[in-house]
């Protein structure tokens, strides 16, 4: 066995290094995939929280028929973040309605 290693030491060394690199890359790839899934879950959760915040503020403002400037600005800021996270649809229509509401 030692004779074989001595004769083919470069091939044995390259095989060992290749195996080590492959294992390391597989572990890094697994961690990257897990981190990507976690980041996606965080984005989805944040988008949902922003959506709920916009809806809650819309319902409060709708009851009054008017909205304060500060609440309007906060909703506009939340909508921009919501939209940047990929949200749209119903909330866009609600945002537009809020932006047209008279100010207190």
Concise description?
This protein is mainly alpha-helical and 104 residues long. It has one domain.
Strand fraction equals under 5%
> What about the largest sheet?
none
What is the mean pLDDT? Answer: 92
Q: How widely separated are the two ends?
A: 89 Å
Our count of helices gives 4
> What would you call the shape?
rod-shaped
**Unreliable runs, pLDDT <50, ≥5 residues?**
none
Name the helix and strand elements from N-terminus to C-terminus, one letter apiece: HHHH
How many strands appear in the DSSP assignment?
Answer: 0
* The number of domains: 1
Helix-and-strand structural type:
mainly alpha
Rounded to an integer in angstroms, the radius of gyration calculated over CA atoms is 28 Å
Q: In percent, how helical is the residue content?
A: over 70%
Please give a structural write-up.
With 104 residues, the protein is mainly α. The chain has one domain (20-100). It contains four helices and no strands. It has helices at residues 2-7, 9-64, 69-84, 90-100. The chain is rod-shaped. The chain starts with a helix and ends with a helix.
């Amino acid at each position: 066995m030692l004779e074989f290693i001595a004769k083919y030491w470069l091939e044995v060394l390259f095989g060992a290094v290749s195996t080590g690199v492959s294992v390391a890359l597989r572990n890094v790839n697994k961690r990257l995939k897990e981190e990507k899934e976690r980041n996606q879950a965080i984005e989805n959760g944040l988008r949902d929280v922003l959506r709920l915040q916009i809806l809650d503020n819309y319902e409060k403002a709708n009851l009054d028929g008017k909205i304060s400037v500060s609440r309007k600005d906060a909703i506009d800021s939340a909508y921009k973040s919501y939209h940047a996270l990929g949200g749209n649809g119903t909330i866009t229509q609600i945002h537009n309605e809020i932006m047209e509401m008279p100010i207190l």
